[in-house]
Amino acid sequence: MTSPALIHLVAAARPNFMKVAPLFHALKQEAWCRPLLVHTGQHYDPEMSDVFLRDLGLPAPDVHLCVGSGTHSEQTAAVMVAYEKACMRERPDWVVVVGDVNSTLACTLVAKKLCIPVAHLEAGLRSGDRAMPEEINRIATDALADVLWTPSIDANENLRREGVAEERIQFVGNIMMDSYEFLREKISAEKTAVDINVEPCRYGVVTLHRPSNVDDSGTLGKLVETLCEISSVISLVFPIHPRTWQRLQSFGLMERLTHSKGIRLLEPLGYVRFMSLVQDAALVITDSGGIQEETTYLGIPCLTLRNTTERPITISQGTNRLVSPSTVVEQVRESLSGNWQITVRPQLWDGQTAGRVAASLRSFCVDSSTARG
Ligand code: UD1
Questions:
Q1: Could you tell me the CA-to-CA distances from 262 to 19, 128, 195, 199, 202 in Å, in that order?
Q2: Which residues fall within 8 angstroms of residue 216, CB to CB, at 6 or more apart?
Q3: Does the beta carbon of 243 sit less than 6 angstroms from any atom of ligand 1?
Q4: What are the tens digits of pLDDT across the range 286-301?
Q5: Cβ 209 under 6 angstroms from ligand 1
Q6: Of 89, 112, 187, 285, which has the fewest Cβ atoms less than 10 A away?
Q7: Which atom of ligand 1 is nearest to the CA of 210?
Q8: Pairing state between β 203-207 and 320-322
Q9: Other C-beta atoms lying within 10 Å of the C-beta of residue 356
Q10: Could you report the per-residue pLDDT of 117-146, keeping only the tens digit for each?
């Protein structure tokens, strides 16, 4: 009997863990493969990493690359050097990368240069904005990966437009909803709003971390003023990403927020506590990718502080609207008046994506080992 196929599941940063977890659990049930969790260490603070592993029932990583922070080139290069060594120590049969962070691209490059097949989960998303580091990672990863698992139909269209062969594209749905469904009961029992003493359905959640919003003092200053204005209309709860925390401190903007009565500042929250906070919110103001999807799934108005989105289905079918500092206050009022699109859950956002991905991967592994004889 042949030994089980060794599958690397690469996770790096906060938004990756909820994409990897359902697939890890699904593959653990299968006799034909042995999934190993690879953590590159791009996110390393306990509240950006460990709490997610715990919440999502993931074990300690089998391989930890411990790369930490740096410039884009430093971080991408550090992951490449460390991951190449890991692959040469024990060569995986397949590498699965998720999302669009620097580690996604770095591990794809390493694996392909070692002639190891790569599958990309959450392939085909495009914002059209090449000033976003994630857009570069998406385009380059999709150009190289052998199998492209897409979360929505628009992603298939993007890939076709780029000339990707039909047999590389597989529409599997949105795996983040599997994580939500897996933890639905725990999330509902958590009651984060009550714990922090805000009234359920009477507050907005804020998250900000995109370089385009937080790295320039003028832009971030304007956003802080806008949040203060919104907080006179509705209370805001703002769990602050480490990057944003650093910028608020160094630009001298933190005081303005801490003195604003209607804004609660929190450390970053784990998955269950954060999803509980979102689930009980009246609205969300964000620049995150994943939260645009989670709010569509939950039917909560989402105001995205960006000019573009790689997830347009959350606008056409969901609760998402793109806003700017000059339009967001008006949009908050509109959402509170109840004038907001009722959401439709996009096709295959059904909590069953991991099973489809596992079946797809099995077909490749079994076929290729049969072909090898
Ligand atoms: C990264 C991803 C982004 C994703 C985001 C989610 C890329 C290009 N960007 O951006 O797509 O949406 O994660 O959070 O891959 N830091 C800490 N502790 C940590 C991690 C980071 O203090 O655990 C600090 C770093 O020192 C750095 C800053 O936060 O100054 C930014 O971290 P980094 O991972 O480089 O980028 P993100 O902005 O988190």
A1: 33, 36, 17, 12, 12
A2: none
A3: yes
A4: 999 999 999 999 999 9
A5: yes
A6: 89
A7: 38
A8: unpaired
A9: 19
A10: 999 999 999 999 999 999 999 999 999 999
